[in-house]
Amino acid sequence: MSGRTSARKATNLVVAALATGAALLSLAVLASILWTLIARGAPALRLSTLTTSMAPTGEHGGLANAIVGSLIQVGIGMLIATPIGVLAGTYLSEYAKGSKLGDVTRFVSDILLSAPSILIGLFVYVLLVATTKTYSGFAGAVALAVIAIPIIIRTTEDMLSLVPVALREAAAALGAPKWKVVTQIAWRAAGSGMLTGILLALARAAGETAPLLFTSLGNLNWSTSLGKPMASLPVAIYQFASSPYEDLVQLAWAGALLITLGVLAINIIAQLTVGRRS
Amino acid sequence: MPDAVTIPTATSDAAPLARRRVSPLPENLFSATVIGSGLIVLLLLGAIIVMLADGAWPALKAFGIAFFWSPVWDSVNDKYGAGIMVYGTVLSSVLALLIAVPLSIGVAYFLTEILAAPFRRAVGVVIQLLAAIPSIIYGMWGFFVLAPWLAAHFILDVADLAAPVPGLNKILDYGSGNSVFTAGLVLAVMILPLITAMFVEILGATPVVLKESAYGLGCTRFEVVRSVAVPYGRRAMIGAVMLGLGRALGETMAVTFVVGNATRLSPNIFAQGSTIASTIANEFNEAGFGSMKLAALLGLGLTLFIISFIVLAASRALVAPRAVS
């Protein structure tokens, strides 16, 4: 009896040790990633990295055109995605309870949410690049919008469904029509949560590389024209990291550090927005 | 009766009410807008399927249904099939799950059962942040740190050990730092935070009463998790694993850096290989508008779409549907 009990206690201890080991190993690996990022990225990150355009090896180029290109494409992408995502999420939460069309829309949005991002790139390539016979910054922005839309839909629906029914009923009892209940009561009550979803979508779009490879292509030169190939930070990192030149690889690490800091900063802001609400 | 006296006031209020009823324009406009946005989402998926299928059609017509499994990728003679890439995609993703799932279970156990409560929220936030790091960062780390380390300290030793064992020495043969195995490892690291976060949430959702009853019977911590929490959340946990699998199958940047990008079939996991996504990313700029190669690459995309759809449908069938919860 006591032998069995001690065996069970020993098993418990062994499992605890294994679990702690797994946690430490995972922590070590993730620390290695962050350490590599900082150790290789920070020394290469200078003010000139932010102010000069990309250049061939040996010419002391920077990443300015890639940063601006990313800002333009992500910005336009979010301008397209935010209204569609918020309205479609509102449809699912407020207008589609129990309807067949709503269920189908929700399922389709989930498929889009988990679709590999490279397929979004291929889709926009066939839709906009193959038809116009030119890679363009606009195609890149559309691809990023398609990535962001399902994320915004999901969070908008989830946040709106947290708004108490009593609030809506109170407004309806005062004679407010449904669109006013939705826009002035539900949207306001769920506002910070919906904003969090938009920020998370923004962070995700900013770090995407694969959908931009066949849409905006990347561009070594300074270009802000939406009708021409446009540089972006992730594609610039990809091109430089796979080059054989040490100075370009260093620049890739600097870009990697920049984009990680940016994405993490947006995520932290999003977390704080949620924290303040609850 | 005083109550009756108030009725006329109510009817006099009815006038603006009636006016509101005859102008339903804003209401109709708003509902049309939100329904229209929902329809855009449906159109979007329809367009993705149609565009991929249409673009892939020349390849499917030329090579038939066998395109999906034929292990031929010959750019010189313009003969293509998805077999090699499907193999690499599935192999690297399964390797990733074999590594990431046990680790995630361990980490989730540590976070929910061993770590002191005050630290849990902070660690939870850190995991979410790690899950948000762009996948290209994992790819660069794999290429510049992990692959050289594996080549120097791991692959030769393991291949030496496996060499005398027939069968095993074909799977664990001498190879390169950039391999399907390395891709699996990088994918494992990438999906680890994702799966762990879901496991923590699922294990944390076990009703406290159930766990306390088990403790009351004298169960140890491990026995409570094994016999109460895990059976309670089993379906959701398998669903979480499927979601992780879906992410690994379609990942491009984390894989393209480290998989070696060789289009040949090998049982050796330390050999250079390729996945669907890595091949598309790697060879797309060699394919001109309207070429057979472009059609074949779009066919690869269609194959990937079908695979990830099957995995998503499976994960949804396992997790309790959102509509119910």
Notes on the protein architecture:
The complex is a heterodimer of chains A (278) and B (325). Chain A is an all-alpha fold. Chain B has a two-stranded antiparallel ribbon. In chain B, helix 4 packs antiparallel against helix 11. Chain B is flat, with a radius of gyration of 27 Å. The relative contact order of chain B is 0.13.
Got a strand count of chain B?
2
Tell how many strands the DSSP assignment of chain A holds. Answer: 0
Net shape of chain B: flat
Largest sheet of chain A: none
Order of helices and strands of chain A: HHHHHHHHHHHH
Number of helices of chain A: 12
Quaternary state reads heterodimer
- Cα-atom radius of gyration of chain A: 24 Å
Overall pLDDT score of chain B: 88
Question: N-to-C terminal Cα separation of chain B, in Å?
Answer: 50 Å
Describe the strand arrangement of the main beta sheet of chain B, using strand numbers.
Answer: 1-2
Which tags fit this structure?
heterodimer, A: 278 residues, mainly alpha, B: 325 residues, two-stranded antiparallel ribbon, 2 strands, 74% helix, flat, disordered N terminus, disordered C terminus
Describe the secondary-structure layout.
The complex is a heterodimer of chains A (278) and B (325).
Chain A: H1 2-41, H2 47-51, H3 64-95, H4 100-114, H5 117-132, H6 137-161, H7 165-173, H8 178-189, H9 191-207, H10 210-213, H11 233-241, H12 246-277
Helix pairs in contact in A: 1-12, 3-6, 3-9, 3-11, 4-6, 5-6, 6-9, 7-8, 9-12, 11-12
Chain B: H1 2-5, H2 7-22, H3 25-63, E1 73-74, E2 79-80, H4 83-114, H5 117-132, H6 135-153, H7 155-162, H8 168-171, H9 180-204, H10 208-216, H11 221-250, H12 253-256, H13 276-283, H14 292-318
Structure in a nutshell:
The complex is a heterodimer of chains A (278) and B (325). With 278 residues, chain A is mainly α.
